[in-house]
Design goal:
The chain is mainly α and 114 residues long. It is 71% helix and 0% strand.
Protein backbone atom coordinates (compact mmCIF):
# COMPACT_ATOMS: atom_id res chain seq x y z
CA UNK A 1 0.00 0.00 0.00
CA UNK A 2 2.94 2.31 0.60
CA UNK A 3 3.92 3.95 -2.69
CA UNK A 4 4.55 7.40 -1.17
CA UNK A 5 7.02 9.11 1.15
CA UNK A 6 5.45 8.78 4.61
CA UNK A 7 7.80 11.28 6.24
CA UNK A 8 7.00 13.98 3.67
CA UNK A 9 3.26 13.33 3.98
CA UNK A 10 3.57 13.50 7.76
CA UNK A 11 5.08 17.01 7.55
CA UNK A 12 2.40 18.07 5.05
CA UNK A 13 -0.42 16.75 7.22
CA UNK A 14 1.02 18.43 10.31
CA UNK A 15 1.23 21.74 8.44
CA UNK A 16 -2.33 21.40 7.17
CA UNK A 17 -3.87 20.38 10.49
CA UNK A 18 -1.73 22.70 12.64
CA UNK A 19 -0.88 25.81 10.60
CA UNK A 20 -0.04 27.77 13.76
CA UNK A 21 3.72 27.23 14.33
CA UNK A 22 3.31 26.85 18.10
CA UNK A 23 0.55 24.23 17.76
CA UNK A 24 2.51 22.54 14.97
CA UNK A 25 5.52 22.17 17.28
CA UNK A 26 3.29 20.88 20.08
CA UNK A 27 1.64 18.33 17.79
CA UNK A 28 5.03 17.25 16.43
CA UNK A 29 6.35 16.75 19.94
CA UNK A 30 3.34 14.64 20.88
CA UNK A 31 3.74 12.50 17.77
CA UNK A 32 7.45 12.05 18.44
CA UNK A 33 6.51 10.18 21.63
CA UNK A 34 5.64 7.25 19.38
CA UNK A 35 8.63 5.38 17.98
CA UNK A 36 10.96 5.80 20.93
CA UNK A 37 10.81 2.14 21.98
CA UNK A 38 12.10 -0.82 19.96
CA UNK A 39 8.59 -2.32 20.01
CA UNK A 40 7.06 0.79 18.42
CA UNK A 41 7.28 -0.18 14.77
CA UNK A 42 6.71 1.84 11.58
CA UNK A 43 6.80 5.25 13.29
CA UNK A 44 5.93 7.43 10.28
CA UNK A 45 3.05 5.19 9.21
CA UNK A 46 1.67 5.05 12.74
CA UNK A 47 2.08 8.81 13.21
CA UNK A 48 0.07 9.40 10.02
CA UNK A 49 -2.62 7.08 11.37
CA UNK A 50 -2.64 9.00 14.65
CA UNK A 51 -3.10 12.27 12.76
CA UNK A 52 -5.91 10.82 10.66
CA UNK A 53 -7.79 9.71 13.76
CA UNK A 54 -7.12 12.79 15.92
CA UNK A 55 -7.37 15.50 13.30
CA UNK A 56 -6.50 18.94 14.68
CA UNK A 57 -7.51 18.06 18.24
CA UNK A 58 -4.44 18.19 20.53
CA UNK A 59 -6.14 16.28 23.37
CA UNK A 60 -7.21 13.54 20.97
CA UNK A 61 -3.70 13.50 19.49
CA UNK A 62 -2.26 12.79 22.95
CA UNK A 63 -4.83 10.09 23.65
CA UNK A 64 -4.35 8.40 20.28
CA UNK A 65 -0.56 8.50 20.62
CA UNK A 66 -0.92 6.80 24.01
CA UNK A 67 -3.12 4.15 22.38
CA UNK A 68 -0.52 3.61 19.66
CA UNK A 69 2.18 3.12 22.28
CA UNK A 70 0.06 0.37 23.87
CA UNK A 71 -0.64 -1.37 20.55
CA UNK A 72 0.05 0.36 17.25
CA UNK A 73 -1.97 -2.24 15.36
CA UNK A 74 -5.21 -0.88 16.81
CA UNK A 75 -4.44 2.63 15.58
CA UNK A 76 -3.48 1.34 12.12
CA UNK A 77 -6.67 -0.70 11.91
CA UNK A 78 -8.89 2.21 12.94
CA UNK A 79 -7.20 4.63 10.52
CA UNK A 80 -6.43 2.48 7.51
CA UNK A 81 -9.01 -0.31 7.65
CA UNK A 82 -12.18 0.96 9.33
CA UNK A 83 -14.58 -1.02 7.13
CA UNK A 84 -12.52 -4.19 7.28
CA UNK A 85 -12.32 -3.92 11.05
CA UNK A 86 -16.10 -3.89 11.19
CA UNK A 87 -16.53 -6.57 8.53
CA UNK A 88 -13.95 -9.08 9.78
CA UNK A 89 -16.67 -11.59 10.44
CA UNK A 90 -18.10 -11.38 6.92
CA UNK A 91 -17.42 -14.30 4.61
CA UNK A 92 -15.12 -13.66 1.66
CA UNK A 93 -17.02 -12.35 -1.30
CA UNK A 94 -17.89 -9.23 -3.29
CA UNK A 95 -19.14 -7.26 -0.29
CA UNK A 96 -15.95 -7.82 1.66
CA UNK A 97 -13.79 -7.01 -1.40
CA UNK A 98 -15.73 -3.78 -1.86
CA UNK A 99 -15.11 -2.81 1.78
CA UNK A 100 -11.38 -3.48 1.36
CA UNK A 101 -11.30 -1.27 -1.75
CA UNK A 102 -13.29 1.45 0.03
CA UNK A 103 -10.75 1.48 2.88
CA UNK A 104 -7.85 1.83 0.48
CA UNK A 105 -9.54 4.62 -1.47
CA UNK A 106 -10.60 6.64 1.59
CA UNK A 107 -7.16 6.39 3.20
CA UNK A 108 -5.35 7.48 0.05
CA UNK A 109 -7.87 10.31 -0.42
CA UNK A 110 -7.13 11.53 3.12
CA UNK A 111 -3.38 11.24 2.61
CA UNK A 112 -3.33 13.32 -0.54
CA UNK A 113 -6.08 15.87 0.12
CA UNK A 114 -4.92 19.46 0.19
Amino acid sequence: MNDYDEKELLFQKLATLFPNPQENDQAGNILSDYGTEASELEPDRVRLAILKLAGADIACLKETTTSAKRDHRDVLAWAEYPNQTIARSLPDGPRKKKMIQMDLEQYKAWLFEK
